[in-house]
Design a protein that fits this description.
89 residues
């Protein structure tokens, strides 16, 4: 196994992680931005007001995209397991 192949495996793993985490992080970012704007306009500075909507948004995104996320991760993992015999040479 060459250094290029190892680098390719690491790059694939990092990209897979980014693709799976991006929708959840973007949802939390957008909800946090909306709540921060509402807090700034109404002068309400309650810390739990930002946490609960973000948590709900992340749970909703997991509900909508959970199947896709699981199948994508399963495909990547199966692909890695199929490469094990080639790595042993």
């Amino acid at each position: 196994m060459s250094i290029g192949e190892v680098t390719s495996f690491l790059r694939g793993g990092i990209l897979e992680t980014l693709f799976l985490a991006a929708p959840l992080l973007m949802a939390a970012l957008l909800v946090g931005l909306v709540v921060a704007i509402l807090q700034a306009t109404t002068s309400i500075q309650e810390q739990t007001l930002t946490f609960v909507p973000k948590l709900i948004a992340i749970l909703l995104m997991l509900g909508f995209l959970g199947g896709w996320m699981f199948s994508s991760l399963a495909d990547y993992t199966v692909g890695l397991f199929r490469l094990i015999p080639q790595m042993a040479r």
